[in-house]
C-alpha cells in the first residue's frame, strides 16, 4: 500500500535526480486530438491505476502548489517502474516539482487540474504508456544502462510508431505485455554508439530526439554549444575535442531500426519560439533536415521542458501544420494527426 509519505518522498527523489545521468521512468497518458481513437471499457487494473494517479495528484497538489500531474506520474513510476525494487526515496524537505525552463510559466491551478483530469481519464480507459527518458549514455555507464534496459526488456514490449498508432486506433496493444519506450534525448554520440546497440540486442525500439544544430556543430565547438543550450555534458565524456554529438550518418543508420523525432534546432523551449524567424529556425529547418536524412517525416516532437501541446503557441502550431503526428510531453504522448 503506497502511503502519502511514500508519494511525497518519491516526488522529492525524482525532482532531485540528475536526469543527465539517470534513466527517469515515467508513466504517461495517451491522448488523441483526431477523434479517431477507440475508447476501451475500463478494466479493474486500469481503474485501480487511474485511482492511484488521481490520489497522487491530489497529494502532491495539496503539498506543493508548483506541482503538475507530471510530478504525480513520475512519483508513481519511481515507486512502480524502476529496475531496483527498493529505489531510495528522499524524506524531508525539498521541492516536489520537476525542473522547467526559466522562460516557461507554471500553468494556473485550473489548467493543471484540467490536465490531470485528461490524464486520469486516459489511464482509466487503458490509454497509457511507460517511458524511460535518458539524455547522455556514455560508455562508462554502459554496464548500468545494460542492467536497466535488460530489466525493462524482460517485463515490457517494444513500441514502434505503428504499434502506438494501432493501440490508439483499436484500444488495445498487440503484445499482451505493457509497452515501454526508451527515449534518448539531445543527440549525443553515446546514444548511437552505446544505447542504440543495447536496445537492438535486447529487442527494444529506441525513440531518439536530436537537436539538429548540435549535429551540425563542428566537434571542436560542441562543448561550447552544449553549455550554451542546456545540454548536459558529463565529466565521464571523452576529453578534448572528441565529438559529443552523433553524426548525421549515425542518425540515418539508427533510423532504419528505431524512431526519430524532432527536438528543435538548439534544444529550445516552446516559450522561446515567438517570431516567424524563430519558427523557421527551430521548427521548419529541423523538420526538413531530419526528413532529408532519415527519408521520412519525423514521428513526433518534443520541446525542452516537455510542455504539452498548445495550439496557440507559434512553434507548436507550426509543428502541427507540418503534419507531425505525435507530441511528446512530460505527462502524455498526444496524437495530433
Automatic annotation (TrEMBL):
UniProt region (Disordered), positions on chain: 85-113
Domain of life: Bacteria
Listed GO biological process terms: carbohydrate metabolic process
Membrane-spanning segments: none
Compositional bias annotation for Basic and acidic residues: 102-113
InterPro entries in alphabetical order: Glyco_hydro/deAcase_b/a-brl
Protein's UniProt name: Polysaccharide deacetylase
Species for this entry: Klenkia soli
Amino acid at each position: 500500500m503506497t502511503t502519502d509519505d511514500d508519494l511525497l518522498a518519491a516526488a522529492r527523489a525524482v525532482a532531485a535526480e540528475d536526469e543527465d545521468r539517470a534513466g527517469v521512468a515515467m508513466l504517461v497518458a495517451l491522448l488523441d486530438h483526431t477523434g479517431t481513437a477507440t475508447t476501451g471499457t475500463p478494466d479493474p487494473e486500469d481503474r485501480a491505476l487511474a485511482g492511484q494517479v488521481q490520489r497522487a495528484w491530489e497529494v502532491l497538489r495539496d503539498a506543493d502548489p508548483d506541482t503538475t500531474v507530471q510530478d504525480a506520474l513520475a512519483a508513481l513510476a519511481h515507486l512502480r517502474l524502476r529496475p531496483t525494487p527498493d529505489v531510495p526515496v528522499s524524506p524531508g524537505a525539498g521541492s516536489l516539482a520537476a525542473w522547467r525552463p526559466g522562460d516557461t510559466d507554471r500553468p494556473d491551478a485550473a489548467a493543471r487540474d484540467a490536465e490531470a483530469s485528461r490524464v486520469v481519464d486516459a489511464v482509466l480507459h487503458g490509454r497509457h504508456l511507460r517511458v524511460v527518458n535518458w539524455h547522455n549514455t556514455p560508455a562508462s555507464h554502459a554496464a548500468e544502462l545494460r542492467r536497466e534496459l535488460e530489466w525493462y526488456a524482460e517485463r515490457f514490449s517494444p513500441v514502434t510508431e505503428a504499434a502506438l498508432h494501432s493501440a490508439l486506433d483499436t484500444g488495445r496493444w498487440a503484445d499482451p505485455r505493457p509497452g515501454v519506450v526508451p527515449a534518448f534525448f539531445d543527440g549525443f554520440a553515446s546514444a548511437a554508439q552505446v544505447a542504440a546497440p543495447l536496445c537492438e540486442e535486447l529487442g527494444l525500439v529506441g525513440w531518439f530526439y536530436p537537436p539538429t544544430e548540435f549535429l551540425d556543430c563542428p566537434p571542436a565547438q560542441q562543448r561550447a554549444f552544449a553549455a550554451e543550450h542546456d545540454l548536459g555534458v558529463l565529466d565521464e565524456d571523452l576529453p578534448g575535442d572528441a565529438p559529443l554529438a552523433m553524426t548525421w550518418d549515425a542518425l540515418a543508420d539508427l533510423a532504419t531500426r528505431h524512431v526519430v523525432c524532432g527536438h528543435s534546432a538548439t534544444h529550445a523551449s516552446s516559450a522561446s519560439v515567438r517570431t516567424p524567424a524563430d519558427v523557421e529556425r527551430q521548427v521548419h529547418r529541423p523538420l526538413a533536415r531530419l526528413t532529408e536524412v532519415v527519408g521520412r517525416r519525423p514521428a513526433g516532437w518534443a520541446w525542452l521542458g516537455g510542455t504539452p501541446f498548445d495550439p496557440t503557441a507559434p512553434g507548436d502550431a507550426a509543428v502541427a501544420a507540418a503534419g507531425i503526428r505525435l507530441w511528446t510531453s512530460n505527462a502524455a504522448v498526444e496524437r495530433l494527426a
